[in-house]
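Fold it.
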Amino acid sequence: MNVPLPFTEEPNAWIYILIASFDFMGSLISMAEEKLLENKREGARMAIENYMPDFAVEAVYDLTVQSLQKQGIKAVLVDLDNTLIAWNNPDGTVEMKQWLHDLRDAGIRIIVVSNNTPKRVKRAVEKFDIDYVYWALKPFTLGINRAMKHFHYKKNEVVMVGDQLMTDIRAAHRAGIRSILVKPLVQHDSIKTQINRARERRMMRKIAEKYGPITYKKGI
C-alpha cells in the first residue's frame, strides 16, 4: 500500500506549508540563489558543479534492476511530472508500469518526491501503489530527508532521479546523494516549470562550456 510520508512530523511544518502555497516558490528560490552565486567568480564555478548530475539517461525506465543493484541502490527517489509520468498524462505508460513491477520484484523501493500538493501527488500515484513525498520543496532537501528518515536509508543507498537541473539535481547535491538526470517525457511543460527551463538552458550552456555537453545514455 502506498504511504504518504507525514508532513506534519517535521518541526515547524506550518512554515513549510505557508512557503509551499506559492507555486513559483522553487523557481524563485533557485533564481535568487543563482543570482547571488553569479555575483562572485568562485560562486559561479560552484554553481555549475552543484547542478551537474552524476548520471544522465534517456528515461527513468532505462534504469534496470541490475544497474541499480550494481550501484548499491536500495531506493529510487523519483520526481513525478515529466519524469515518472508526463505531466499531462496521469495514467502513465506500459513501460513505466513494467519498470515499477521489475523494481518491486527486486526489492528496490520507489518513492515519488514531488513539489506538488498532497491532492495532486496522491491522485497521480495511488493507482500505482507507490510511496510518495509531497511538498518536497526542491531545490531544498526537505523531501529527500523525509524519505530517507522514514525508511531508514543511508545516503549511499538512494538516488534522486528527475528531469530538472534546477530542482531535482540541485536538491540531490544539497542532500549529499547521487543524482540521475533524465530527459523530460514531453517537451512542453506546465507554465510554472517553463521558468526553470529557461534558466536550465543557461546552466546547460555553462556546463557544456566547462565540461562538455551532457550525454544521455541508455542506463548507468
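The longest strand covers residues 109-113.
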